[in-house]
Amino acid sequence: MRRESVDDPVRIRPGFPRRAAHVASIRHPRRVGGFRRDVAGDGSRQEGRNAPADLTSFTTAVVAFGFVGGHVIDALLYAPREVLEQPLQLFAIWRGQGSFGGFIGATLGAFAWKHFEMKPWRRVFFLDVPRVARRAAPVRILPLADVLLAVFPVAWIFGRMGCALAHDHPGIRAALRAPLAVAAGAFDPTKTLHGPLGIELRFGDTPRYDLGTLELLFTIALAGATVVTWRRPRVPGFYVTLVPLAYAPVRFALDFLRVGPEAGGDVRYGGLTPAQWCCAAIVVLVAASLQYSTFRGRLGERVH
Known about the structure:
With 304 residues, this protein is of the alpha+beta class. 47% of the residues lie in helices and 12% in strands. The chain has two domains: 50-138, no CATH class; 145-304, no CATH class. The protein is globular.
């Protein structure tokens, strides 16, 4: 099969093909935001890159940083006193994961990948040990981030499905027959069933809103909306803008239903949870990025 070069003409549809890597493909650089031209302020041309390989390494960096941030940053945001008392718990990544810690970590991973890369260093026995090196020039990450965020809501369904099944995000008290409420309460060993692999089934007597289930329902709707757009024309950065702006306001509102720290819930800073502060920051940053992009576009039109 002939290998496609960076000079191949545009021949694919603007939608989301079966091979996800080609959403950010060099064959469709303008509509989907590929690698053929770097839309930088100086309009310089960026050298053609291997889109599938870049997508693989980019995803690896994002996921790795996301898992680390999901524990480390989450612990710093939600339990700073415990971290000061037991700093070594930051290394116990398996002991807990948080959504916004993971989001922040993934974002840091994306920008780290933009400026750094892994290069061969030396061979130890039968393993090639890599080293971190700064790139000769930063790589444009918007097309890659668009690919990940196009499918992220679908993957997020499984994460929130676990929260809904575990009922580990109890909210404030609800009416006795309120929809989406669960019977939560203080831990009672006499009302606990112990299953295999450490699984416990606990029963409570206080109906509360189940925030895990509420967010799961929203995530299903968001995933459906993104799937519908996979085969429709869209501008570069569409999912990078759509998904955060859709998620942040809903999560901000849901956290008002979360129990307070006195009842074992999340800590508050200025009356808001860390997640609510992160949601506000997301809206501000995305809005500022849109404004900046619009300004650059108008400036480019004036120059040309």
